[in-house]
Write a structure and sequence with these properties.
- This protein has eight helices and eight strands; from the N terminus they run βαβαβββαααβαβαβα.
- The protein has 220 residues and is an alpha/beta fold.
- It has a single domain, classed as NAD(P)-binding Rossmann-like Domain (Rossmann fold), CATH 3.40.50.
- It starts with a strand and ends in an 11-residue tail after the last helix.
- The protein binds NADP nicotinamide-adenine-dinucleotide phosphate.
- NADP nicotinamide-adenine-dinucleotide phosphate (NAP) binds next to helix 1.
Amino acid sequence: MKIGIIGAGNIGGNLTRRLTALGHDVSVANSRGPETLKELAEETGATPVRAAEAARGAEIVVVTVPLKAVPDLPSGLFDGAAEGVAVIDTGNYYPRRRDGRIAGIEDEGLTESRWTERAIGHPVIKAFNGTYAQDILDRHRPAGDPDRMALPVAGDDEAAKRKVRALIDELGFDTVDAGGIDDSWRQQPDTPVYGLRGGTEAVTRALAEASPERKPEFRG
Ligand SMILES: NC(=O)c1ccc[n+]([C@@H]2O[C@H](COP(=O)([O-])OP(=O)(O)OC[C@H]3O[C@@H](n4cnc5c(N)ncnc54)[C@H](OP(=O)(O)O)[C@@H]3O)[C@@H](O)[C@H]2O)c1
């Protein structure tokens, strides 16, 4: 499958490694340009591109940049993507440590992913946001393995969500349907499921136990 990855850091780099290992045709971009991605390209066989080109022809695009960088992404990012492209958002809001205060989240009460959707002009599927980047490389397991981890996946577009869940299964993880994007606060930072290394039952329970309250340290 043709997959675009925007962001080549901890998450984007490791998704590039695993998805190329599985035989996918991966284009990867960062903020500094393709010439700075030579090493990753040589290691994985992925094609380094500019962010504006990463979605070209892609059936799945992963947006995995710091939240504060989302508004800097080029406009029309998904114009050349395959019809029905599924856009995965791995983002988290860390107002004090990294992102600064984002009014849409703080004042309008948008979930992080709803805010991202508005900024990029495309619906998203929220996935991997609570997954340690290293676990993408180290903790994948075949289907049915008792130690297989499950990841929560939220999104409003059911067809796109199915596509993303199938890809995550291929990557070696179970998934739990975490509802729509307005429900995705249940998997944001500081919730029980965030960073949880558990199976389907534990993830389902953790999602149910989440509180919508955002503690002061997670407010801008
Ligand atoms: N680290 C984790 O374990 C983890 C786990 C789950 C979710 N997340 C979340 O996933 C997101 C990415 O995290 P990360 O740790 O992978 O970040 P990271 O290591 O800091 O990497 C960020 C990447 O985004 C790129 N980038 C920044 N601005 C860009 C722009 N305008 N256009 C194109 N690319 C741009 C950077 O490119 P340059 O280097 O060229 O600037 C870099 O490749 C964050 O929201 C984070 O909270 C992280």
